[in-house]
Design a protein that fits this description.
12 helices; mainly alpha; Helix Hairpins; 0% strand; extended; single chain; 73% helix; 272 residues
Length: 272
Amino acid sequence: MHTRQEQLQAFDRLLTVMNDLREKCPWDRKQTFESLRQNTIEEANELSAAIIKQDMTEISKELGDVLLHIIFYAKIASETEQFDIADVCNRLCDKLIFRHPHVYGQEAASNAEEVSKLWEQVKLKEKDGNHTVLGGIPDSLPALVKAYRIQDKASNVGFDWEQKEDVWDKVKEEIHEFETETRAAVPQGEDPTPEQKQRMEGELGDLLFALINVARLYHLKPDNALERTNQKFICRFNYIEQQAKEKGKSLNEMSLDEMETLWQEAKTQTNY
């Protein structure tokens, strides 16, 4: 691993390269906060995918891409003297010190759960922060992540199940309500009316919210879990498609039983 001096030299090199690009490259010179925004989101998603795969080489690469965007935004802002990278770092350090009174102050926290509760309490005291428990959750978050954050923040102020095992009764209740609503809406396979569909979606939302609560209580990340299942399905379905091609068939020509046989093969022949 690199020494602190080598790390600082690498960061200084990055700042120098960014200065050069902003001055000498027509594309880099043209960029704005708005033009970079979507690319930043894409880079964050690529980092997330690398983390799920636990590919350290790819994680290092994607972290560099995300860091580039941070440096880029700071450079653009410095040109109009709004802020620079030093402001970004110092404000972050100030916030971290303020939110960790158990490290830099007199508070005590002996485990991660106590730290999380203390973090939320401190955030509510911040002068420029949000003054409601759920006020700091961005509206733009994906619904799956937002539900987890909502539940986590509510839990930190004591709004939670007394025993995590109690959540299973809630899940069973929501499954029953969703099934009941769905069967009532489409008794003979007919398409539901807009009103019925709205009620069904409401019950489905309640069920998903309860399942996310299970994930939180058992310290699982539902978005990671779902993405791993997505990748597993893609891998196994690709196997079915490849085997069909080798047999000279298209998927449309195969029976469900044939595809199921290949699906079971995929479980033993692929990484998933």
